[in-house]
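Project standup — Tuesday

K.O.: blocked on the structure for the chain from last sprint. Re-posting the sequence here as requested.
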Amino acid sequence: MNDCPAHPAPDGGAAPAPELFTWEFATDPYPAYAWLREHSPVHRTTLPSGVEAWLVTRYGDARQALADSRLSKDPAHHAGPANAKGKTGIPGERKAELTTHLLNIDPPDHTRLRRLVAKAFTPRRVAAFAPRVQELADRLIDGFADRGHADLIHDFAFPLPIYAICDLLGVPREDQDDFRDWAGMMIRHGGGPRGGVARSVKKMRGYLAELIHRKRENPGDDLISDLIRASDHGEHLTENEAAAMAFILLFAGFETTVNLIGNGVYALLCDPEERERLQRSLAAGESELLATGVEELLRYDGPVELATWRYATVPLTLGGQDIAAGDPVLVVLAAADRDPERFPDPDRLDLARSDNQHLGYGHGIHYCLGAPLARLEGRTALATLLQRLPDLRLAVEPGDLRRRGGLIMRGLRTLPVEFGTGRPPGEGDTLSTL
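H.V.: unblocked you, prediction finished:
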């Protein structure tokens, strides 16, 4: 039985058009998305920033849009006024000169940069990193297990991926708390006033530029050093490209995982039957349900609500709707992944769902490069929490939880939980997540 609010389907068109971007909408957008899929699947709206954009909500249209070369990632194609152009993208990136990254460029530059980065961001490197992720998960739980209560966002879901991505990039341990502070500012205020966010991004960019300069002189066994060494037909990343790439790997590599862990744990706490099903599977040493379960959590209440910005380069038709050149288009991944035309019984959490080609990490040439690392962290976090704290439960009513502001990401501000006193993992106690 699910203890949290249900997500009802539209009632045959009798319900009025939903109000978007309210606090109520942020808490549970799925009824509004069901209405849009039914009545206005490619929907023109004014965003909270004042920018007008199209929302794409059906799975088929979303998948098409994500792979459509006529929809550019380059903000230069935005036909809006100059002040509107500054309201798209990642807060603070323009002031810090960090726009030349994979989320903002098209082929052939995108092809070149992605090929260079892919040489450093290999499956071998991710697989070799699994013991460090497990170590981080256990150390963080050790920090609060004896208290009997915790805020799983602040104490676990947030620090795990930030320390992991810092280790992977090659940020020295003594500097990682600075990154945690800067990243915290970006997460807390990403949808609000941008002054503090811009300052944090600028500090992060300055640090990365200095770190890249040091690693050019003394490279190590880390991702930034590999980015510097990576070459393709004699081409290397420029220092500015390397700084922008390190920034986007850091930004995209931690916030999506914070939300995957936070949203995933919350969904499991709201569905005791599915949580107990997963715990039994883990106790039996089985890994299949954990793997399919993480995919289902990505579909059911994923970390990214809307895909990052796209701009029509020519007039085009999408989902029967004419879109003018220069118009911004936002693909609503959260709506597409609840489309009943693609996913039977889409509002039900089913950890064993096998036919699950969700769009949680995108589709096409901009598919998330860090998805393997995020999946590894998600599997490790969930398995370790459920095994070490088997009686984990919400410490507040579901209605008391609040979502963070922001347009692109979907995550909780806090996740207060209670549990019996934990125990350190014994030999063979933690299931391998590979």
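K.O.: great, moving the ticket to review. The chain has 17 helices and twelve strands. Residues 239-270 form the longest helix (32 residues).
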